[in-house]
Amino acid sequence: MFGQGQAVKTRTFMLGIVLLVGLCSVAAYAQDSADQATDSTPAATPVLPANTPPPSEAKAAPLPASNTPASRVPVVAPANYIVGVGDVLEVNVWKESELSKTVPVRPDGMITLPLIGEIKAMGLTPDQLKEVLTSALQKVVSEPQVTVMVIAVNSLSFNIMGNVNKPGYYPLTRPITILDAIALSGGFRDFAKEKKIYILRTGPNGSQQKLKFNYKDVIKGKNMAQNIVLLPHDTLVIP
Helices H, strands E: what count in the chain? Predict the structure, then answer.
């Protein structure tokens, strides 16, 4: 009796172990299936508005162009600036488009406009020229309203010639000394005579002056008064 009872207990214990192992296996299989289902689900994609390009097509906004040329026109005061040969003027007559013109100042100092012909502009300020044009137009236009603007300053320039890297004409729209001018021209070429530089300047009566400049002395701090400010139409000569 004792042997049969012990055998029944042993079979019951073994059956319990088999059932437990089976339940664990079923649970593990269910977990693996759930993980695989999760991995196979595509990732959520953010919803973009209909007019928004996909991220791969999005581009940065272009930078503003950096090669825009600087204006050739310095700040000129209409009441003080003296118009010179080569300057370009914009003459506007209100409601009279045929009379409004952009005109250069010719070598003789004159400009030409419709109906009034030739008018001397050289030596006048823009404001003075406006009064002259207004007076002339009153003969052909009722109550003319005139404006005169300088749109290109060409009369304020100087010339560099000789043994420099970039000879030519340069605008003189700010104070420029001889040393400044040499720097603007790119410096000396080989064999330039740095002690014998000079400026040719035309005086008010038409006579020419020769102003000497010793570069070697000036850069050593000697006779700094030689480093004068250039005037319009000066010619700097580098032998």
Answer: 4, 10
